[in-house]
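pls design
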C-alpha cells in the first residue's frame, strides 16, 4: 500500500510539474472502483466527448491505462439491460448518451423540442460532403445536378458542415467538410467508421422529384 501511495504521489508531482494549473493538489487520486464512479460522473456532466488524456487530467492524474480500464468497466455497466445509458466513442473522445431504446421517453422531457429530421436532399448533400471532403459547393452541385445553396446553409446552420479551407484556384472558393458535431450526431468515432457507399444508398430514403433549381449556368 505504501508503494502505491508513493507511486500516486510521484504521478501527481509529475503532472503538476507539467501543468501546475491542471490538477488540484488537495484532491486525492481516485483508486480502484472509485475510478469507474468518478469517470461515470465526469462523462455524465460533460457536454462534449472527452479523450483519455483529458479524463486523466480531470481525475487528478489517474494513469491513462487506468482510465482505459475504467472505460471498459463502465461500458460493461452500461451494457446491462437495466441501464438507460450507453458509452460511446465519438469524435476522438468518450461520452455517455441515452440508449436508442429509451429515446422516446427522453423526448417527453423536452416536449417543446421537435425532431429535426434531415430531408433526403439534405442527407444526400451531407453524404457527398462526408465522403468527398474537402470539396467546394460547385463540386457538390456537379455531383447532385442541382443548386445546393439552401441545403448548404441548412447544414451549416445545423453545425454538421463547415468551411475547412480554400481551394487554390482563381477566386479561392471555400472548401467544405464535416464537423465534430457530425461525428457526434451519427455516433462515429471518426470518418473511417463511415459505412460503405453501398450500405449508405440502402439506408437513404428514396428522394422524390428534385425540389431545388438547377445550378445557374
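designed seq:
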Amino acid at each position: 500500500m505504501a508503494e502505491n501511495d508513493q507511486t500516486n504521489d510521484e504521478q501527481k508531482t509529475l503532472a503538476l510539474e507539467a501543468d501546475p494549473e491542471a490538477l488540484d493538489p488537495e484532491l486525492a487520486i481516485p483508486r480502484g472502483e472509485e475510478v469507474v464512479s468518478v469517470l461515470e460522473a465526469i462523462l455524465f456532466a460533460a457536454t462534449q466527448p472527452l479523450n483519455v488524456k483529458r479524463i486523466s487530467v480531470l481525475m487528478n492524474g489517474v494513469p491513462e491505462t487506468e482510465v482505459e480500464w475504467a472505460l471498459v468497466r463502465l461500458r460493461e455497466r452500461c451494457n446491462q439491460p437495466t441501464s438507460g445509458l450507453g458509452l460511446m466513442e465519438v469524435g476522438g473522445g468518450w461520452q455517455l448518451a441515452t440508449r436508442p431504446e429509451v429515446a422516446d421517453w427522453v423526448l417527453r422531457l423536452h416536449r417543446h423540442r421537435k425532431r429535426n429530421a434531415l430531408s433526403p436532399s439534405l442527407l444526400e448533400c451531407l453524404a457527398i460532403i462526408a465522403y468527398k471532403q474537402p470539396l467546394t459547393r460547385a463540386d457538390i452541385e456537379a455531383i447532385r445536378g442541382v443548386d445546393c445553396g439552401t441545403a448548404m446553409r441548412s447544414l451549416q446552420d445545423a453545425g454538421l458542415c463547415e468551411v475547412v479551407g480554400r481551394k487554390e484556384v482563381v477566386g479561392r472558393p471555400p472548401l467544405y467538410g464535416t464537423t465534430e458535431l457530425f461525428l457526434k450526431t451519427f455516433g462515429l468515432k471518426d470518418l473511417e467508421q463511415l459505412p460503405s457507399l453501398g450500405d449508405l444508398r440502402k439506408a437513404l430514403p428514396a428522394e422524390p422529384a428534385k425540389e431545388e433549381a438547377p445550378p445557374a449556368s
